[in-house]
Specification:
The chain is mostly beta strands. It is built from three helices and 24 strands.
């Protein structure tokens, strides 16, 4: 586990514009989401993923529909470009189910501070991360793609981002007003690679400090991680020229192609089925599975999934069976389809005792009362005068008059008594 600490807490992406003439930002498409929300909506994609957020300063205009549409268009562009660069993998983007479609899940956050207080890309990024964390956008299994719709925080700085190779959260920020004329989908792809941990130490073509810093590569201006941006469209940029620095290389250092955040197109999806007995909730630590009734989800083959079980009110978790066992968290590697059963039982138990014949059942702590689940109860069959105990049925078994139970569910036991017959005497 390694964190890249180059500037502040993140590797800074110094994509500077080259004196390009300003061009108006075009609305390239529409977004079918259902409006502005500060929430991260329920996940319909399983596994670590990229969540998109539109951020404005406290005194900024709210142009969410336009920016959300641009963001959704850029996500589609990055997705298509990445698949063209590597037919086996694409970034896993967070999606949400809206009334008319499934589309990128795009949140909205208005910062508590005005634009004037966000001077300098590093200062602005740290302030935004702090505010995002306070708002709940700090899932360790998510990378956050942030489109900041406010005045330029630093002249000719197009984006800022960084993160770990093997853990989140990571942050990739596009300063929408920072580099007029620079395609924002290219900036987004550049910053997302930084959020994934690129460029890792060991890359042979990492830039020197005076050339853009080791978080970039300097072997080709066509590389998407070249330190300086231009008006070249994303479609003309390459993902690791020569595949010898940060993606698809043969070296011993970290390879972004192996990132948890990549969705494998060359492997099948495997089904994870969860069944229930009793009332509770099963969730995956990784995004994608939240179930209170029997459910099935699809995961990339070989994906790592950790399941946790939480009982509903008045219930307790009794354990897993199937692919999961025991009482703790369940770790699965999805090499094939898997299924498990989560069993929950009530916290209070009712024990009912009945008799056949003449006699009674004495219970400690008591029969026909509620007691804590898991508590040991002793039941004693006491025959009436002229009768004898025969056998138990139900929750108790056998012919001994004493029965000890430790039930997880409400139970009933029946004691049978038979009349004592006496032999005739002369």
């Amino acid at each position: 586990m390694r964190r890249f600490l180059l500037v502040a807490a993140f590797a800074v992406a110094l994509w500077a514009g080259l004196g390009l003439a300003a061009t108006p930002r075009a609305l390239a498409g529409t977004w079918c989401g259902s409006g502005e929300t500060a929430a991260d909506l329920p996940d319909v994609v399983t596994g670590p993923q990229v969540h998109a957020i539109v951020v404005v300063p406290a005194d900024g205009a709210d142009d969410f529909p336009t920016v959300a549409a641009q963001l959704a268009t850029d996500i589609a562009s990055v997705d298509a470009w990445w698949q063209g660069q590597d037919p086996t993998r694409v970034l896993r983007f967070d999606q949400a189910a809206f009334p008319t479609c499934t589309a990128p899940d795009i949140s909205f956050l208005r910062l508590p501070q005005p634009a004037a207080s966000l001077a300098g890309a590093d200062n602005a990024l740290n302030a935004i991360i702090s505010d995002l964390t306070s708002a709940g956008f700090a899932n360790p299994w998510k990378i956050y793609l942030v489109y900041y719709d406010g005045p330029s925080v630093q002249q000719l700085i197009c984006g800022t981002g960084g993160g770990d190779f093997d853990r989140g959260p990571g942050y990739a920020t596009v300063w929408l007003q920072g580099c007029p004329g620079t395609p924002t989908d290219g900036v987004a792809a550049h910053e997302l690679l930084h959020a994934l941990g690129a460029v890792p130490p060991g890359a042979p073509h990492a830039c020197a400090l005076d050339q853009g810093g080791p978080s970039h590569v300097c072997d080709s201006a066509q590389d998407v991680l070249y330190p300086y941006a231009s008006a070249v469209p994303l479609s003309q940029l390459l993902l690791d020229v020569g595949h010898d620095d940060y993606y698809g290389h043969s070296g011993a250092w970290d390879d972004i192609q192996d990132s948890y955040w990549m969705h494998r197109l060359d492997l099948p999806q495997e089904t994870l089925s969860v069944a229930f007995q009793g009332s509770g909730k099963v969730t995956s630590v990784q995004p994608g599975l939240v179930c209170t009734t029997t459910c099935s989800t699809q995961w990339d083959q070989n994906a790592l999934v950790r399941l946790t079980a939480a009982p509903a009110a008045s219930f307790r978790f009794l354990g897993w069976t199937g692919a999961c066992t025991g009482l703790g968290v369940c770790d699965l590697t999805m090499t094939s389809a898997e299924s498990t059963l989560a069993t929950f039982g009530p916290t209070l138990i009712t024990l009912r005792a009945t008799v056949s014949g003449k006699g009674k059942v004495v219970c400690t702590p008591g029969c026909s009362t509620h007691f804590a689940a898991g508590h040991v109860v002793t039941m004693l069959a006491v025959p009436a005068m002229g009768w004898k105990f025969k056998a138990w049925a139900g929750a108790c078994k056998g012919k001994r008059p004493t029965c000890r139970l430790q039930p997880n569910y409400s139970a009933a036991a029946k004691a049978s008594f038979v009349k004592v017959t006496r032999k005739a005497t002369r």
